[in-house]
Design goal:
heterodimer, A: 649 residues, mainly beta, Methylamine Dehydrogenase, Chain H, Immunoglobulin-like, 2 domains, six-stranded mixed sheet, 7 helices, B: 155 residues, mainly alpha, Cytochrome Bc1 Complex, Chain D, domain 2, 8 helices, disordered N terminus
């Protein structure tokens, strides 16, 4: 009996010990943090997040809270995986006034809005190097349009959509001679110009149109934010280098205590345009549109732009002084506060829209610059967040009246209260954050649950991969009083900025296939009985189809050395997630990756006689390995007739 | 005893060698596997399949206009894989209405993913042809037209 009690006792103690050991090993806090980012296999994330691919030129689609990467949408750079910029259909997307440009520097994604709320129709993103704005269709998750901005250089303060997606904007970061001309660099001051472009968006088709440009003084226009709600109709641009220095800006553009935020009344601009108070300038810029109907992109070269001169048009632009080379320029969800972050400052300075309007009405000005009134600093000032950190950059907002600002130099995010300007919380980031993003955090309706911080420096956060390491995003839970770091996840390129939207708003609109009936590609083949090969001089056009798991035709003869062979391949599948690829030995382009119901084209110029194979590159069925074919290439002077077949028929 | 062990080991090796090098038996293996799965006999003309179609009224005479509409749809959506009189990627279509119910035919066209997973006849076809029936996203009325084309063809 005693023995039994002893045994039971030992078992009991062991159970207790094991359960204690188990708990302490897991850690109560850790387990709840992990649960917050865990999305079980087969389940979906709560948010789509669109992260700029930075110098990759592309746009990455991640899920939140998991951070998982779903897709890289090719936008400003060629993508051999998807044939974007390689196939005949999408090559025109990368045309510019400088010719075909295979690479771009993508910066700031921004989702379209209606009444100041995210509507999920389109995502816009700017290109910094060869100034452009792209529109991504959020039913296909493909780039639908790219418009170039003439007279601009370093398209940084862009695209930033207005409350009803009336406009996306593009302010030039680098002042340049407008129009471009041969002149001494040191004659910059007073001669170089900074152009602000307003690009209208058609509410049905989404198509963009360069509505007008405002010819501003030669400052650097860095960031922009549309007015919201009460300040709808205004656009705010931060500036630096009001010194108009042309060299060693690191020192020479930091001479003055204050630069400006340029407040542009775009409703006034519309009135001036209507009244004909613009000049028309000859210029050249490319406008590239992908037509889903014909599955082809076309380039139109435009030749004119309407210019507004703010020194001659009263009420169009005002300058709000802002300390220490401001970078971020962010407007809160109510539209009342304009937050400026002097990147060499320790403070965050906030202007009041109401006070700004009052100062304008009562002419409380402190001089002017190039004919543009400068509003008296104190008369627009709403408040200052005092010394929350070092090097403030960007601010986003939650739905409870709080603001969140990144501090690059002191590597942290600071949460502070709008109106009282008190600091509520500070959390370190790893390391040196640039932008941060709260879903809807730049609109009238933020979703204040998560915050993504986009860090500029990664160092030791992941397994090392040689000198080059990934960029790092960090996810915080901001639903409570204090911010809580949940996870790190790697990103492509350098994610300058991001935009996120609740998944329910767009996931059910996501296209599954392209209807074959609606395919009006000029070289479509809708049935195997219509496949053909046509010679036109030394051009050979192969009208081919693919379906699990064969190409029709798969044997082609009569091609000669020196021919230019076009493969026009239509994927006849009408089922979700059954793309087919095609690759040809020796083709100097890329593979094609063709979605169901789609037609794509690549060119092959055979250089030698022989029998050359092609095959499907995307594993499509159990008989994918059998999805292959041959092209016979004969000498230039051969008499072999053009012929094609499948199964010798 | 030792010898017996050796013989046993050799025998095992030989079996392994023979079975792993039995090169050309591919077709045979497939048909054997098919037999293993055939657990019970089913009457195909009683099987309506799985999917949106539970009953089709084919009591009337052939609707020629509908059949010709079906013929055009068959040409564009089906001929990449099916011929009427000869096996291609999938089976020949002539006689299909004599060996399958109209409901089964329509469900196979409209709901192939579930059919090849859950319906025994469809599963057997997948094993025989190895290429899954493609879902061509046809509507019920389009599918009905194709059925009418098959019926007309089978008169």
């Amino acid at each position: 009996m005693k023995k039994n009690i002893l045994i039971i006792g030992i078992i009991g103690i062991s159970v207790l010990f094991v359960s204690w050991w188990g708990n302490s090993n897991k850690g109560a806090l850790n387990s709840s943090t992990a649960e917050k980012v865990y999305v079980a296999p087969g389940e979906h994330d709560e948010y789509y997040a669109f992260l700029s691919g930075g110098f990759s030129g592309q746009l990455a689609v991640h899920g939140l809270p998991s951070g998982r990467l779903f897709k890289v949408i090719p936008v400003f750079s060629q993508d051999a995986e998807k044939a974007y910029g390689y196939n005949e259909e999408t090559k025109p997307m990368l045309n510019t006034s400088y010719g075909f440009i295979p690479w771009g520097d993508a910066h700031h994604p921004d989702i379209s809005q209606t009444n100041g709320e995210l509507d999920g129709r389109w995502c816009f993103i700017n290109e910094n190097n060869t100034p452009r704005i792209a529109r991504i269709d959020l039913t296909t998750f493909e780039t639908a349009e790219i418009i170039e901005l003439p007279n601009s250089a370093g398209n940084h303060s862009s695209p930033y959509v207005t409350d009803n997606t009336e406009y996306v904007v593009a302010g030039t970061r680098f002042a340049v001679p407008v129009p471009q001309r041969d002149m001494p660099i040191n004659e910059y001051k007073g001669n170089f110009k900074g152009v602000l472009s307003f690009v209208g968006v058609d509410q049905d088709s989404g198509e963009m149109d360069l509505s007008f440009q405002i010819m501003m003084p030669g400052f650097d226009y860095d960031k922009a934010h549309p007015g919201r709600g009460k300040s709808h109709g205004w656009m705010f641009f931060s500036t630096y280098n009001v010194e108009e220095s042309h060299t060693l800006l690191e020192v020479n553009a930091s001479q003055r205590d204050k630069d400006f935020i340029a407040a542009v009344n775009w409703k006034k601009a519309e009135e001036y345009i209507k009244a004909g108070k613009f000049s028309t300038m000859k210029t050249k810029y490319a406008h590239n549109v992908y037509d889903e109907h014909t599955q082809m992109a076309t380039t139109t070269m435009e030749s004119e732009v309407r210019i507004l001169d703010p020194s001659e048009l009263p009420g169009l632009v005002y300058f709000l002084p802002m300390p220490k080379s401001p970078h971020g320029c962010d407007v809160d969800p109510s539209g009342e506060y304009i937050v400026g972050s002097g990147k060499l400052s320790a403070n965050v300075t906030i202007h009041s829209f109401t006070k700004m309007i009052d100062a304008i009405e009562n002419k409380k000005f402190d001089g002017e610059a190039y004919g543009i009134p400068i509003i008296n600093f104190e008369d627009a000032l709403a408040g200052v967040v005092k010394q929350p950190g070092l090097g403030p950059l960007h601010t986003e907002f939650d739905n409870k009246g709080n603001a969140y600002t990144t501090f690059f130099i002191s590597s942290e995010v600071v949460k502070w209260k709008l109106g009282t300007w008190e600091v509520l919380d500070k959390k370190p980031t790893y390391y040196s954050p640039g932008h941060l993003m709260i879903p809807g955090g730049n609109s009238q309706k933020p979703f204040g649950k998560y915050m993504v911080v986009l860090n500029k420096i990664t160092k030791d956060r992941y397994l090392p991969t040689g000198p080059e390491v990934c960029h790092s995003a960090q996810l915080y839970d901001i639903s409570g009083d204090k911010m809580e770091l949940l996870s790190d996840f790697p990103t492509i390129g350098e994610p300058h900025y991001a935009a996120a939207i609740p998944a329910e708003i767009i996931k059910n609109k996501s296209k599954k296939i392209y209807n074959l009936e609606d395919n009006h590609h000029p070289h479509v083949t809708k049935s195997e009985k219509d496949v053909k090969v046509v010679r036109n001089g030394n051009e050979v056009h192969i009208y081919m189809t693919s379906i699990r798991s064969h190409f029709a035709p798969d044997n082609i003869e009569g091609v000669k050395v020196g021919d230019k062979v076009y493969f026009h391949v239509t994927n006849l599948e009408q089922d979700y997630d059954v793309p087919h690829g095609i690759a040809m030995i020796g083709a100097n382009t890329s593979e094609l990756l063709i979605m169901p119901g789609q037609t794509e084209t690549f060119i092959w110029e055979p250089k030698g006689e022989g029998v050359w194979p092609f095959y499907c590159t995307d594993f499509c069925s159990a008989l994918h390995q059998e999805m292959q074919g041959y092209v016979r290439v004969s000498p230039r002077n051969s008499n072999i007739k053009l012929s094609w077949s499948l199964d010798d028929e | 005893m030792k010898n017996i062990n050796k013989i046993l080991a050799l025998g095992l090796l030989a079996t392994f060698f023979l079975s792993s090098c039995g090169g050309d038996g591919g077709d045979k293996t497939t048909s054997e596997e098919v037999k293993v799965v055939e657990t019970k006999e089913i009457d195909p003309m009683q099987d309506k399949g799985i999917g949106p179609i539970t009953s089709v009224d084919i009591s009337g005479k052939i609707d020629d206009a509908l059949a010709s509409e079906g013929s055009i749809l068959f040409e564009t959506k089906c001929t990449a894989c099916h011929k009427m009189d000869k096996r291609k990627i999938g089976p020949a279509m002539t006689g299909v209405t004599k060996r399958r119910t109209p409901e089964w035919i329509m469900n196979m066209i409209m709901n192939p993913d579930e059919m090849v997973k859950e319906n025994q006849l469809a599963k057997q076809l997948l094993m025989e042809y190895m290429s899954p029936m493609a879902n061509q996203s046809l509507t019920e009325s389009e599918t009905r037209a194709i059925l009418e084309f098959f019926r007309q063809n089978d008169i």
